[in-house]
User: Which sequence fits this backbone?
């Protein structure tokens, strides 16, 4: 396998859906660490760290993930917590090449909103840092965003 220059490797992706729920209800769902894993194809459970009990800027939590036979956990730190508007966190905190996961929520009516999940994972372009020269990892993450957003949409079907 030839190593691609960092600038040639994809590092971002997103998916957007319309959801039949208020922006506030969607935000509450996305920031509920018991319900958040029900959306993701990789995340199996989450837990608060350092005695935290609710999402807020600076709060840390740990996600337990699985893809195929590979299992791992990742510590996360909330960077944006704007009820009804946005939620974002970095993985792992205090790492030079941290990944940012974010959810933008735009109200489109009293009981509807547009939600976008996105990621920015600069380490995907650094094969020497991320042994993730895992072929197709960016595409896998984009597919995961699409599945997560479809699951969110389905969770609010009336």
Assistant:
């Amino acid at each position: 396998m030839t190593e691609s220059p960092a600038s040639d490797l994809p590092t971002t992706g997103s998916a957007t859906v319309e959801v039949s729920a208020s922006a506030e209800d969607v935000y509450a769902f996305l920031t509920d660490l018991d319900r958040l894993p029900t959306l993701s194809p990789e995340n199996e459970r989450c837990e608060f760290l350092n005695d935290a009990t609710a999402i807020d800027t600076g709060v840390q939590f740990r996600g337990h993930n699985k893809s195929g036979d590979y299992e791992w956990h990742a510590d996360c730190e909330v960077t944006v917590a704007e009820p009804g508007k946005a939620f974002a966190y970095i993985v792992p905190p205090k790492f030079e090449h941290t990944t940012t996961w974010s959810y933008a929520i735009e109200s489109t009516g009293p009981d509807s909103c547009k939600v976008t999940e996105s990621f920015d994972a600069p380490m995907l372009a650094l094969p020497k840092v991320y042994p993730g020269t895992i072929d197709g990892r960016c595409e896998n993450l984009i597919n995961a965003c699409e599945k997560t957003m479809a699951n969110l949409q389905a969770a609010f079907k009336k």
Q: What stands out?
A: The chain has a mean pLDDT of 91.
